[in-house]
Predict the structure.
Amino acid sequence: MAKSLFPAPGNKTEQENGSVFSPKFGVDGLITAIVCDASTGKLLMVGHMNALALQRTLETGEAFFWSRSRNELWHKGATSGNVQKIVELSTDCDQDALLLKVEVAGHGATCHTGQNSCFYRTVEIEDGKTRLVNSGDKPLFNPADVYGAED
């Protein structure tokens, strides 16, 4: 059996007040990672990490995630150049979520749509119907130029 990259979570007191980083991964082997801009605090994205993605993030100082849609390790910005450099990584009280404060290289975009943040639309309700409203921010790059044309 392979050795775990992180120690097993201790009891509640150790988990909430101790100094041992022992992230609690879900039954799917993932932990939620919230990403915000280190200088502005703006929410950029939410992703998921498995133990290997978290280990690579800690080793390199750049954000790695587990892509649930592609079922593979994903180095954020490897294709687009918009690499997320870790400024600070913290965990919540019971160590089942992470907060990454990052500086975004390249175009400064986090979203594959070219937007600075993946949260560029708001949900509005009008006459009992919901709709998405774009923030009006212009994309920072053309996704087709970076990723190629979509199918």
Notes: The chain has one domain: 31-147. The radius of gyration is 17 Å.
